[in-house]
Prior knowledge:
Elements (H helix, E strand, L loop, with lengths): L3 E2 L3 E2 L3 H36 L9 H8 L1 H19 L8 H14 L2 H7 L3 H28 L6 H27 L9 H7 L1 H25 L2 H7 L1 H9 L17 H35 L6 H53 L6 E3 L2 E3 L5 H26 L7 H26 L10 H16 L26
Helix pairs in contact: 1-2, 1-6, 1-7, 1-9, 1-12, 2-15, 3-6, 3-15, 4-6, 4-9, 5-6, 5-9, 6-15, 7-9, 7-13, 7-14, 12-15, 12-16, 13-14, 13-16
Amino acid sequence: xxxxxxxxxxxxxxxxxxxxxxxxxxxxxxxxxxxxxxxxxxxxxxxxxxxxxxxxxxxxxxxxxxxxxxxxxxxxxxxxxxxxxxxxxxxxxxxxxxxxxxxxxxxxxxxxxxxxxxxxxxxxxxxxxxxxxxxxxxxxxxxxxxxxxxxxxxxxxxxxxxxxxxxxxxxxxxxxxxxxxxxxxxxxxxxxxxxxxxxxxxxxxxxxxxxxxxxxxxxxxxxxxxxxxxxxxxxxxxxxxxxxxxxxxxxxxxxxxxxxxxxxxxxxxxxxxxxxxxxxxxxxxxxxxxxxxxxxxxxxxxxxxxxxxxxxxxxxxxxxxxxxxxxxxxxxxxxxxxxxxxxxxxxxxxxxxxxxxxxxxxxxxxxxxxxxxxxxxxxxxxxxxxxxxxxxxxxxxxxxxxxxxxxxxxxxxxxxxxxxxxxxxxxxxxxxxxxxxxxxxxxxxxxxxxxxxxxxxxxxxxxxxxxxxxxxxxxxxxxxxxx
Length: 483
């Protein structure tokens, strides 16, 4: 199906984009479960291994282990990106990597909580490493599939839809987590201990994630014929190159170097991206432990927090087009960074103004504090703000390359983010070895990283479409059907 309508104007094929989004659905589905459980699994087993009751004593080890996925991504994603760029199979460039990686991950992933349940630290680490390696095999090709099959001027809009699909995937285990937390087993005073002793409470989210990952990969494989689609839209992809939001045109030549202006733009975007992921991943990695060990509150409330943030992210994906149409990608992304900084500043102020209460022991059982309501509001704002960042940043990077290098530039984008996500858990874990640095300083760390990111991104040149402008839909139209 051609993308050209209305006398030759480019228009996004929404149906195909939603289907491509199943790849991202599977990615965020798995990582949401990973982030929600694995840091606590590691904390508990490391505390037992080192015979300590102080969680801060082992957070440097937790940080290192939680950085494994990011270190693997830093090394493997550019490799698989280049390999998929050069692959020409009857299933396409990206599909072989998506299928193999997904199925191996789906087999290994459900055994992670089994290893934890049996207090086997070595098995837990081995299973995490296997999962990470094969997740990296499919992650780059899965993400690169969207720009492969979408003309450049339409990629921000398409990326909004892809991210909506991803957040739906992330919401599945979150909703399940709320159900488990609100079940009768968590109403008794020993609910948290029961969670660790009953295998099914921690196994069900992992098992469900694996099943849905396989289903999403099969849907993608059966409904998207990569080679066929590329042939159908070849002319539109060529037109998209002419209408790209870049300072200098991109040559479809592997040997020709990038222009100085485009290279500067790429470096600034990647460095700014590095720092916003330093903040974002630092918070997401340690938020469960922050809630459990600093707020002394139930981590079950984090599921509600994640859903609120996710809903606001979807709102951002649906409304970003209106902002982009008015002020362009650069300033839309800048607004997202500034709002995120403000949300973290408010979090810092309120966390010190309203410190958590000392734990109370009732009938020999520690009574948990209520989860702070202000956290829901802060993460709602942050969810919306970061959606403006993510919906524009990846298209800005792959805008700077030809169709032959999409996997490679996808690798650059993820190398920057994964380098940050490798460094930030280790950095925070090591900082917590200092008795003067505890979980209460987590939002301050996030503020510092986000401020640096916003300053660097300010110097990215604001390039608007200098030829035929994209007709950017807004609001609910941005996720409507295409006849």
